[in-house]
Design goal:
- By secondary structure, the chain is an alpha+beta fold.
- It has 2 domains: about 55 residues; about 90 residues, no CATH class.
- It contains 3 helices and 5 strands.
- It has a 5-stranded antiparallel beta sheet with strand order 3-2-1-4-5.
- It is elongated.
Length: about 150
């Protein structure tokens, strides 16, 4: 009986986590899709660099993330931003992060601005492959929890 209760709570936590992960990922994915219609405005990329941090729970493994700081004009006022694209995450190699610095050198850039909220901007609009990870992982975890619940009913 105790094992079945524990299985139930583990399954419930997995289901909740899977649904939450799927919802967060779906939000990033929808923002990526909607950014195709965002307004293009001229901007200036003021700085870019690669940040290195330790990989989670690791002593000698690192992850890398390209970071950006840019300025743009909406016609009404000058704003700043630091978003490459929604959900951009750390990468396992320095070269992968440096690729973004090569694609977006410091200087003049096109900034993509949400016409409904000009404070919201990004440098690389659209859907990127890593945006699919969270929703797919969430669906997988939710499926595993469904399987656990189905097993409990037997």
């Amino acid at each position: 009986m105790l094992i079945k209760k524990m299985d139930f709570w583990i399954g419930a936590a997995m289901l909740l986590g899977g649904v939450l992960l799927c919802a967060i990922g779906a939000g990033e994915l929808l923002k990526g899709v909607s950014s195709y219609g965002w307004q293009e405005v001229p901007g200036v990329l003021l700085s870019s660099k690669v940040n290195r941090s330790r990989a989670d729970h690791s002593v000698n493994s690192y992850q890398y993330q390209a970071s950006f700081f840019y300025r743009y004009h909406t016609g009404v006022r000058e704003l700043t931003g630091d978003v490459l694209y929604p959900g951009y995450a750390r990468q396992s190699t320095r070269e992968a992060a440096e690729d973004w610095l090569e694609k977006l050198p410091v200087g003049e850039v096109i900034v993509y601005v949400n016409p409904d909220n000009p404070k919201e901007s990004m440098l690389a609009p659209g859907v990127h492959p890593e945006m699919l990870f969270r929703p797919l992982a969430g669906l997988f975890i939710a499926f595993l929890s469904y399987w656990l619940f189905a097993r409990l009913r037997q």
